[in-house]
Backbone:
């Protein structure tokens, strides 16, 4: 009998395996391949991937970009309407510069994510269906451009979910998504 | 009152023989093991108190602490349990798995004491820094994400703790070296092999920690101008998740040991189990990438290669152990005439032995709760559904607070009898404790997972029911927080029960010979055929069920992702 | 160690077993692999990020 606290004797390499064990090994290898392959496949066939171009930037530089974007945008009662397809959002202690913003449903925007100071979380949910939510990280020193398309009109609430200081729980904003066609 | 630390059953060379395991044990190894285990339990107590305060705050019907105190106690909770409770225990496991299983003296015992002193002193420094932190110093929580600054003494404490752990690990490495030099043609026992792989995984984690904390400390004191947030995250998680991978491999090593001693298990295939440990040592630390899947900067290639443990090498290893360990128990018990039918081997097992029950609950709940959620959240795209939500603490409480903690508690229960040679006091409490803890903490984990998945509630918030500046809140999740709060209190009580039995036994337990108290499988005759021809159908059913549940949640998660709006290049 | 057991044709264990027993070799290879796969590749990614985007 083989004990885990004794050195196994002689040639243990050639000890036979139970057939049940061999079947399990096969099932495990198939599982591993599926887990790996599906991620790769989704990059090509799936519409939800945490990918986008990254650029180095600085707090001052990103502030300028966000300010320039806000200049060109239209102010409305519900929030900022971007002039084009670029949307700029910056996390800061303690708010989201650029929010609230009004977007058109079904239209693809290039959403620029960055931070003026420390790490922040970009956590977005449909306020009428909380299970529909996603989460990305905002890092100071980097600008991340993530294409996004919101299919359904509604209000999407944004909270910061990375600890960024004592005012963290007040850090929130929203997207207002309206019917397309303007 | 007997003081278990002071009794001395050793011969003039310092050895004694354990009548349960048959191991030859030297006092130079046993004494530091006892100290490290006791220190680990002290850390656990502090972490448990902090757990109570944190849970009663996030359960906002109670809402105990204001924000500043919440973050302070959250930091104490994280460091006491994820780092101190775990790492002190793991040094003890290395000394047991190495010199004690090999029947050797501990080489350079002064290093064990030096390492322990450095670890304790630096732990004190870290806790002190947390205690006195106020602006401009932010609480580190566990991760101390730059550029949010924490107290300089915090980073220094972290560096010294790492160095202390390395020093404490040196006698273990030396004992393996000596064993291989003296017996070059002998394979290490499986437990020792597992402990060795654990130590290499630990070395990577500790090295990554130094690469993280030394520059960050220099930045904090002004010697370095800036620290790159992405580099910090990448390197922090080598120690952040690496320490948890140490937990995993140490826990599995403990599972092999405990199922053997408590349950009469055998090793069904040295080749397969060792292959799994080798897969771990190569691939498991790549999984630190799980924390930066929803990040900019790192390429999708890097993320998918590393988060998959290079094509799921480590998940394969986990699935192997998930089969081998129950199968070892099944085969071992069938061959001793202790099991018929599909699950007789499990029904006949000593469930009233807390060493056995704790180990078994650890295996089952780690697999189903911690393991499955980890695999799912570790898929690059699915991660965006869970990143920084309450589902993340749900996952790691499933792995560490339920899985590893139960395994270490079971190990400690046995340590009281085998190392300290004391009988358990309050035996009814000892028998019930693993059931109580597994049940309560298990429900806490389910509640946390649901809070994160169904409501997307953020983690690291002191309150989400009333967000300043907006009418929007997460009050729909309040009932689940109530469930979490109540069961968290029960879980802390169950943890206290463990401490009461442990400390009570050390102080007041009767000195006794373990052979009178522990299951004795050596006297049973072997019935039936050889191991590889003995039925493993019970294990096959259980593991097939595990794969089924994994597949089910896998499909559900991807379907939920597909329903979400579109994002990504 | 009893190397005088009946009919043991090979005294030396098969080479895969010897490889598994070479724990220091395994450790060294694993550390190098992790360092390249996780640390160095990640560093390359960080250093490859271009400046100033759209």
Residues:
């Amino acid at each position: 009998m083989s004990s885990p606290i004794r050195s196994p004797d002689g040639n243990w390499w050639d000890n036979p395996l139970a057939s049940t064990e061999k079947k399990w090994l096969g099932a495990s290898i198939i599982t591993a391949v599926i887990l790996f392959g599906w991620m790769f496949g989704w990059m090509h066939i799936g519409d939800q991937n945490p990918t986008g171009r990254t650029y180095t930037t600085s707090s001052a530089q990103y502030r300028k970009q966000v300010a320039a974007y806000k200049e060109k945008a239209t102010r409305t009662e519900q929030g900022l309407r971007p002039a084009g397809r670029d949307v700029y959002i910056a996390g800061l202690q303690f708010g989201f510069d650029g929010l609230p913003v009004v977007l058109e449903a079904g239209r693809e925007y290039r959403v620029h994510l960055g931070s003026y100071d420390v790490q922040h979380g970009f956590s977005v949910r449909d306020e009428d269906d909380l299970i529909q939510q996603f989460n990305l990280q905002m890092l100071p020193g980097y600008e991340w451009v993530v294409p996004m398309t919101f299919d359904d009109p509604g209000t999407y609430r944004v909270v910061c979910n990375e600890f960024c200081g004592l005012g963290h729980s007040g850090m929130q904003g929203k997207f207002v998504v309206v019917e397309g066609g303007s | 009152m007997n003081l278990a630390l002071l009794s001395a059953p050793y011969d003039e060379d310092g050895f004694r023989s354990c009548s349960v395991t048959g191991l030859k044990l030297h006092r130079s190894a046993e004494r530091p093991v006892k100290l490290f285990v006791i220190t680990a339990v002290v850390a656990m107590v502090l972490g448990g108190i902090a757990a109570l305060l944190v849970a009663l705050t996030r359960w906002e019907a109670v809402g105990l602490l204001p924000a500043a105190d919440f973050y302070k106690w959250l930091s104490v909770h994280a460091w006491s349990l994820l780092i101190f409770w775990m790492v002190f225990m793991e040094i003890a496991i290395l000394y047991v798995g190495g010199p004690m299983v090999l029947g050797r003296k501990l080489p350079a015992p002064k290093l064990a004491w030096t390492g322990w002193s450095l670890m304790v002193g630096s732990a004190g420094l870290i806790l002190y820094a947390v205690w006195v932190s106020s602006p401009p110093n932010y609480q580190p929580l566990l991760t101390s994400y730059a550029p949010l600054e924490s107290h300089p003494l915090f980073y220094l404490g972290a560096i010294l703790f790492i160095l202390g752990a390395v020093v404490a690990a040196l006698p273990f490495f030396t004992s393996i070296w000596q064993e291989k030099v003296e017996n070059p043609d002998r394979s290490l026992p499986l437990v020792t092999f597992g402990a060795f792989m654990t130590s290499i995984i630990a070395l990577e984690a500790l090295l990554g920690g130094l690469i993280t904390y030394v520059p960050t400390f220099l930045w904090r004191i002004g010697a370095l101008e800036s620290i790159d947030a992405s580099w910090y995250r990448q390197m922090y998680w080598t120690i952040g998740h690496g320490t948890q991978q140490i937990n995993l491999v140490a826990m599995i090593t403990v599972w092999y040991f405990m199922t053997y001693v408590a349950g009469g298990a055998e090793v069904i295939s040295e080749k397969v189990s060792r292959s799994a440990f080798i897969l771990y040592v190569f691939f498991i630390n790549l999984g630190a990438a799980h924390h930066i899947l929803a990040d900019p900067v790192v390429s999708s290639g890097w993320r998918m290669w590393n988060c998959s443990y290079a094509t799921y090498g480590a998940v394969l290893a986990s699935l192997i152990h998930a089969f081998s360990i129950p199968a070892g128990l099944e085969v071992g018990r069938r061959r001793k005439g202790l099991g018929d039918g599909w699950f007789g081997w499990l029904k006949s097992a000593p469930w009233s032995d807390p060493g056995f029950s704790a180990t078994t609950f650890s295996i089952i709940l780690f697999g189903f709760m911690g393991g499955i959620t980890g695999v799912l959240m570790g898929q690059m795209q699915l991660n965006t559904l869970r990143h920084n939500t309450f589902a993340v603490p749900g996952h790691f409480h499933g792995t560490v607070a339920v899985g590893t903690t139960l395994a270490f508690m079971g190990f400690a229960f046995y340590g009281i009898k085998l190392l300290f040679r004391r009988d358990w006091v309050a035996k009814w409490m000892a028998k019930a404790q693993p059931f109580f803890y597994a049940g309560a903490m298990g429900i806490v984990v389910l509640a946390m997972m649901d809070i994160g998945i169904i409501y997307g509630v953020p983690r690291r918030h002191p309150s989400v029911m009333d967000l300043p500046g907006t009418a929007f809140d997460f009050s729909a999740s309040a009932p689940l927080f109530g469930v979490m709060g109540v069961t968290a209190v029960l879980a802390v009580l169950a943890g206290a029960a463990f401490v009461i039995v442990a400390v009570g036994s050390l102080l007041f337990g009767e000195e006794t010979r373990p052979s009178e108290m522990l299951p004795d499988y050596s006297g049973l005759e072997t019935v039936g055929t050889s191991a590889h021809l003995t039925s493993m159908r019970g294990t096959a059913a259980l593991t097939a069920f595990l794969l089924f549940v994994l597949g089910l949640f896998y499909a559900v998660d991807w379907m939920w992702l597909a329903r979400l709006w579109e994002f990504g290049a | 160690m009893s190397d005088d057991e009946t009919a043991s044709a090979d005294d030396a264990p098969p080479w895969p077993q010897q490889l598994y027993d070479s724990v220091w070799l395994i450790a060294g290879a694993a550390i190098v692999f992790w360092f390249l796969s996780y640390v160095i590749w990640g560093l390359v990614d960080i250093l490859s990020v271009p400046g100033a985007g759209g």
